[in-house]
Design brief:
With 124 residues, this protein is of the alpha+beta class. 25% of the residues lie in helices and 26% in strands.
Length: 124
C-alpha cells in the first residue's frame, strides 16, 4: 500500500507557478521591498532548495554578510538561482518581482537598475 501511495505521488505532475505580473513599475516595486542588497550567489544546496548569497552591497533591511534564500521548485513562485558566481540585485524571492541578475559587462538597463538601488542606500 505504501508503494502504491509513493507511486501515485511520484506520478503527480508538479503544480506550475502562476503569478499575476505587477502593474507597478520596477522602481515602484523596488520601493516596497523591505530587504534589498546587491549580492553574489556563493552556493546552491544539493537539493536545489536554497541558495546562499554573499551581501556585496547592503541597501535596505540587511545587516548580515550572507543570506540563505529559497529556490523555486516549479510548484511555487520563488526565483531560481541557477549557478554560483552570478551577481544579483536582490529585492524579494518571487518571480516577476524586482530581483534581477547583473551580467558582465553591464548593459544600460542593468546600470540604471544598480544606480536606482544605490540611490536608495544613499537616502536610507
Amino acid at each position: 500500500m505504501i508503494a502504491a501511495i509513493l507511486l501515485a505521488i511520484a506520478g503527480t505532475p508538479a503544480v506550475a507557478c502562476s503569478y499575476v505580473p505587477s502593474e507597478l513599475s520596477w522602481k515602484e516595486q523596488l520601493a516596497k521591498q523591505e530587504v534589498i542588497f546587491v549580492g553574489t550567489v556563493l552556493m546552491i544546496d544539493p537539493d536545489n532548495r536554497l541558495a546562499l548569497l554573499a551581501v556585496d552591497e547592503p541597501i535596505r533591511g540587511i545587516d548580515r554578510k550572507w543570506v540563505e534564500v529559497p529556490q523555486g521548485d516549479g510548484a511555487d513562485c520563488n526565483r531560481i538561482y541557477e549557478s554560483a558566481g552570478t551577481q544579483w540585485i536582490y529585492a524579494g524571492d518571487f518571480i516577476g518581482g524586482p530581483t534581477r541578475e547583473i551580467t558582465v559587462p553591464l548593459d544600460d538597463e542593468e546600470l540604471a537598475a544598480l544606480e536606482a538601488v544605490r540611490s536608495l542606500a544613499a537616502t536610507e
